[in-house]
Amino acid sequence: METWMTCPCVVSCADCAVLARGFLPPVLAKLETHFGEMRDLKLIRKQLGEKHHVISEQLGANDTINRPKMLLQRLVRSSAHRCNLATTRCLPVTQRRGFLPASLSDRKVFDAKYPDRQTMSEAEDPGMNGGYINPPRIKRQFRDPYANWWDPQERRNFGEPIHEDNDVLGIFSPYEYTWTKPGPGLIMIGSFVAVFLGLSGLVYLKYPDQPTYPREFEAGLERELGGPGAVRARREGDEDP
């Protein structure tokens, strides 16, 4: 019972002693090295704190020495800048703002850049198109569709000048029918109307009548169809339809 009270394991106390002899020395050695490292870290932190204190004292002393020098340098620079502004400020600000470069204010520069529109007489410019020389007024549909054109769809070569009325001369303008003239066209339309009306009249006059005769009923089936006042059928003595 004493063995169970002192040792929690199932084996005997002799076995526990053997295990302790082999396990405890490495653990103790690790603990000693760990505590030794902790002492070294404390010493390093202490040394760093002392060095930081010394450096901060040195920096404070340098700031107290350099601050007057920096103030004097700033004063000298500001005074020199003011002198330069005084020498360059020859005119009031509003007057200097009104000045424009020659490219925007000189009349000669404006005339060279934007000359006046050239006016031409009616003899020099009969088409009133600025002297543009128009090519012959030929509709594109009348050009050879099988020729070696640079643009086969428009039937036009590269760089070829176009007419000023190209919008009504292009290939997509309304097609112009040239296979007949207005006079012969009116004659053909009138002939068609005359033939159609003449044929209709002949059919109306010569069309045969129906080969049957309407049937007649006794008393017009008045009683069978609803009595007096009802729409009756044809009876003997009625007019021919």
Automatic annotation (TrEMBL):
GO CC terms, sorted: mitochondrion
Transmembrane segments: 185-205
InterPro entries: NDUFB8
Region (Disordered): 218-241
Keyword vocabulary terms for this entry: Membrane, Transmembrane, Transmembrane helix, Ubiquinone
Source domain of life: Eukaryota
PANTHER family named among the record's database cross-references: NADH DEHYDROGENASE [UBIQUINONE] 1 BETA SUBCOMPLEX SUBUNIT 8, MITOCHONDRIAL, NADH-UBIQUINONE OXIDOREDUCTASE ASHI SUBUNIT
UniProt protein name: NADH:ubiquinone oxidoreductase 20.1kD subunit
Lineage: Eukaryota, Fungi, Dikarya, Ascomycota, Pezizomycotina
